Amino acid sequence: MQDQNRSVICVIMAGGFSNRMGQDKAHVKLGDHSLMDIAIRNLREASFFNIRISRNEAKTDYIQDIIPHKGPLSAIHAACVQYQENDILFLPVDLPLISAATLQKTVKKGIEDHTHVSIGDNNFPLFLKNSKHLIDLLEHQLKRSNNFSVGRFIDSIKVKCVECENNDELTNINSPEDLQKAHMLL
Description:
Helix content is 38%, strand content 16%. The chain is of the alpha/beta class. The chain is globular and about 40 Å long.
């Protein structure tokens, strides 16, 4: 599995406005670590080392949206365009309880079955088999639609789902209340 992981680009999605949280989620602390540090640690624990960050901030090593102001779908599109030769695992910065085993299982399923994979009914983590066709579909939805939902995009492509052993791993931190819940789950 580790050899397969070398060709996979992992994109931490940290470009949102964090309106409900009231602050940049990438810098929010869960325990002693920021959500960004936890996402990086979780990917490394799963033996993923080609880690990139999607963040609309003027820093040259971040992936920047090509078609801005369209939410997470813009980040997915930008990463697929930038890394056209690689399959990509997308991990939002606000999923800090995700396990290495779940991340590995998601990618393994995608590589073995040559398909896109998500977890249960959740949009993320999301493994995409990158291709020109996939990029065209993303661009079509971003440029010719008023619906920029990742869920709608996932519905338009063939995505296999794998189950998560522990649904607490999918705890999404969008608000101070969610952060408090995550603290209790640690």
